[in-house]
Known about the structure:
Elements: E1 8-11, H1 25-37, E2 43-45, H2 57-71, E3 77-81, H3 86-99, E4 103-106, H4 116-129, E5 133-138, H5 140-143, H6 149-158, E6 162-167, H7 172-182, E7 187-190, H8 196-201, E8 206-209, H9 216-227, H10 231-245, H11 253-263, H12 280-296, H13 301-305
Parallel strand pairs: 1-8, 2-3, 3-4, 4-5, 5-6, 6-7, 7-8
Amino acid sequence: MQKSDWRGVFPAITTPFRADGSVDEAFLAEHVDWLVRSGCRGIVALGSLGEGATLREAEKVRILEVCRGAIRGRVPLVAAISGLATQACVELARAAEAIGCDGLMVLPAYVYRGDWRETEAHFSAIIEATSLSCMLYNNPIAYGTDLSVRDIEELAARHENVHAVKDSSGDVRRLTALRERLGARLALFAGLDDMVTEATLMGGDGWIAGLANAFPEESVRLFELAHSGNAEEARRLYEWFLPLLRFDTLPKFVQLIKLVQAEVGRGNEAVRAPRLPLSQTERAEALAVIRERIALLGRTAAIASA
């Protein structure tokens, strides 16, 4: 996987569970195939939306194997690498390479918020563990570790296989600052669903997308409109999509996005503890938004399919 492969919509896939709590491998394979056929340019597995922190190591390996088989070489498979211990992350990165993954999305360590010396050592250990193309993931809101533009510049200078960065700071100025400092050295990805149009119009190369799990064609169309500079049509589609895209930024984003999937017939609402299903009130409020957006979809169909 080269830097040029880091472009377009890469869904951060949810992990489907059966009623007994096990991973639904059959649906996972079907879901991944559908996303690829819908125009997505890559698949990211084991991320926060995929409830990676609740998965056992054997389950992570098996999920990557199922995804690899379903993709059949059509697009890159990217493994999100996260955990409490650096060594465990290194071992998962090596397993991902052995399975045949094409890239890694590298997260800071969970829970412990190290200083830059420790954070850099954690990232570097994972990046150096394989020859795979790597994306740095910056999400200070969720993880409490903020990679500055200077930090990212340093990691990119130190490691030739760092090819992309996913920014979930919510500040589109981060992407413009990165472009100013690094030029075309890294592919820049929007990491929050409700910043994709702004980020892409300002030169972003891709989108690690959550709502693409339910609306992949609309997600791809939105990105392509923005990437081509068609701001007016992008704005119209974005306005329809935004109430759903904002689910990606809420604490219960996993439950909410799985609810959207269930409502469009592409999955179920099952999550793993410590997450619990949405309360009756939460679910009713979310469903009202989802159903309103679906009812309006026909009005934007010409944009989405143009």
